[in-house]
Target: Aspartate aminotransferase family protein
Amino acid sequence: MSSVFHRIPKRHLPVAVKGDGMYIFDRDGKRYIDGYAGGACVSCLGHSQQEVIDAIRHQVGEMAFFHAGMFTSEPLEELASILTTDAPEGLTRVFFTNSGSEAVETAIMMARQYFVEVGDPRRKKVIGRRSSYHGAGLTGLSVGYQVARRTPFEDISPSVFHISPCYEYRGRLEGETPEQYGLRTANELEQAILGLGPESVMAFVAETVTGTTSGATPPVPGYFKRIRDICDKYGVLLILDEVFCGLGRTGTLHACEQDGVAPDFLTFAKGIAAGYQPIGATMVNQKIYDAIVGGSGTFKGGYTYSGHATACAAAVAVQKILRAPGFLDHVKATGNVLAAQLKDRFAQHPHVGDIRGRGMLMTLELVENRETKAPFPAALGLSSKIYQSAQAKGLITHAQSGTVDGHVGDHVVICPPLIAAQENIETITSLLSEAIAIALEDVR
Ligand code: PLP
Model:
């Protein structure tokens, strides 16, 4: 019997013993195609990339780790230089963490410290969106809105105000264009700032393309431009969380490039070292860096393993592959194949209400009734049945049920490693189609 405290102890967990490209093998020799990039985009370069393995081996041999508060290291400096060279405008500095949760928490702490340093300490309120995930610590859970996960901790978490997500499938009104819907939804931020008192609001936090809570949900055109304008109007800092959707996943290096905005903070994690080492990062605007360094001189956050040399060495190797000529073109092209295949297979499906996403981050939203968009009753456990039948067929996918902005629904997220070839996409969508059919049969 296992003495590990697994997060979902009732779930059957095969023992993974080997990864190879698009595949994971369990102890019994069963092969699984990875439709979820090693668990939420982690192994975006696939398993067993030789350059990354070599970089880790080399760094461990030279110096695995030393506290980056005492010595900087070559991989740490090189990684920061790579990430800042092609960052969105103004993001000239990067602070390293060990995870996405810490990256978001760091951004929030830096935002607060910035206002303290510039003599505006009244600004302390944070606004997030319903239907988002920003990490599993108290800060991330309170800024995010995964109802089931945050509820037990609400009384001991920082209080955060939430506005509607940009969730076109459920939110756009009849007769409204996507652009009108985007403006209306973004304007909720202005209402919230005015309601809370503009002088007291510190930051707005959003995932550029949401990842887990509502499945992949991209914003409509113009939404984030309006959000950026509102933040600028009221002096509120914009934190975009690209832990899930950043670093190539959507077909561009940063998802926010496609929305034409640059935030004050941009967070990453999964795509930095592609899961070969745990590492996260918070990119920071120069004005925030200047205020902290020119003020008290020290950022008050930070972690023992921030800037871990071996994690940085792995990340340098991954980031070089991501920026190699043609790599992002491959991601874009494969993303188009993925979207086209999902549409071919599911556009007419009586229980697929929405097919959405961006690049190599796509979602199917399952409904009992396409006309009314009514979801299946949660008690049927459709998502978990899809997950299980996919696993039995040798497909790793992420099917989840959850409450999204008041709607209970079942979502399947498809985000294979970025190296996927067209035939891998065909296999993934075909196995998924079989898994969904079995699960639907089971709930009928
Ligand atoms: N932010 C987003 C958008 C995420 O998707 C996640 C994890 O899935 C996190 C933050 C938290 O990252 P981590 O699990 O590395 O702490």
